[in-house]
Amino acid sequence: MRRAPLAGLALLLLGARASADTPATKQWVLATAKATGRGGEEFVSSLRVVNPFSGTATVDLTYLAQSPLVPAPEPAGLGDLEAAGDNGAAPKVRVVLGPGETLAIEDVLGTRFAGSLAPFGIPAGGIRVDSDVPVSVLSRTFVANAVSATGVRGTFGFSLPAQAPAETVSAGETAWLPYVSSSPVATEGFRTNLILLNTGAATAVASVALVRGDGTPAAPPRTYTLGRASAAQQTDLGASFGVPGSETNLRVEVTVKSGGPVAIGASLIDNAISSIAYVPPVKVDEPDDAAFGWVVTRGDPTLASAGRLDLLSGVPNFMSGLVVVDCAAGSFVHSFLAWGPGSGVPATNTTFAARPGGGWLFEGASAASGSWTGTISPWVDGSLFGTLAFTTLPSARCPAATTTYEWSAAKAAGFEETP
């Protein structure tokens, strides 16, 4: 995990705000079911799909059925598992929402995907949601035959918000699930079910580890291999890993080694009364290969500045901007183009060098505009922040002058490296 310098941390905390889940055009409901639990519980799932806009929304729902976890073929390690179900031709249904409409889909598997619930023998799975305009999706999985202590019929369950691509775990990333428990007794304590969904079109391989609260391993890690768009659920995770006693402060760490991205989550179940809570994933989001737009976030507001910063193959290779520098004659706008190695431009004029603790230093100059130095640091949400010191060339109007800015950057447009 990269660590931000303290000054940068203060800057980000001052400007940070919690953001709610936002509508998306591509997302995944991690788990749905129409199944009977080990205690006779009748699990059913329903959806709410919201179109917050003034036009019609066309939404495709694709059912990604779970497949069983079986020992992975050789030369896999001892305990490694595989869910090889292929959902490449999974069933799809289309729904249309009017302006501002919330669509309620009760018993989504039974009413929309009847007849294709269990192609791999398990009446459960995820749902991919594709829409022509952004929509929000919330699912609820509940026990439909629950009875209160006084004999009154009711339901209990848990809600799962759909996960957008930024919430999934890409190859090389690690996410974790806190508040994981295990009990050696089936009638007391808690058990945890790990849910995995390969959102990609190729096989995904993920390493899963169980870690105690003090950071020590509770059991040796295990590798899970997921087929194309495959869904899987590891029930009673602690028991499956051989955790011997009662543990109430575990976390699951999932590292995607190849393929994916993979959506993850967990259900925490009270063994005595079968109540369920959803455990969402947490991850440190590495900055994508993309063009980032940056703006000044601290300094003299009259010296506003903005520009572009590119990351390719995980490192910066280009930065540009318009900067305002003061001198005795007034404030003047200057432009700079910082071309790094790999930018595709022969006239490289800037170095981008990794620094201890994470992030990069940069330094460069141009005979046409001046010179520059600065820092670039990643933040946990995939954004960037840093400093820029720009020094002008001396002129008849002004001597050479240096102005230092603090800036932050957000992803503006993604791109992939061409072969």
Radius of gyration: 26 Å
| Total domain count | 2
Task: Report strand %.
Answer: over 45%
CATH architecture of the largest domain: Sandwich
Classified in CATH, the superfamily of the largest domain is TM1070-like
How is the main sheet built? Answer: 9 strands, antiparallel
Helical amount? under 10%
Q: What is the CATH third-level topology name of the largest domain?
A: Hypothetical Protein Tm1070, Chain: A
Going by helix content, strand content and strand pairing, the class is mainly beta
The low-pLDDT segments are 1-18
Count of DSSP H/I helices: 3
Q: Give the helices and strands as they follow along the chain.
A: HEEEEEEEHEEEEEEEHEEEEEEEEEEEEE
Question: Any idea what the shape is?
Answer: elongated
Given this structure, which CATH class of the largest domain is correct?
Answer: Mainly Beta
Biggest sheet, spatial arrangement of strands: 22-21-20-19-27-26-25-24-23
Distance between the termini: 29 Å
What's the mean pLDDT score? 87
Work out the number of β strands.
27
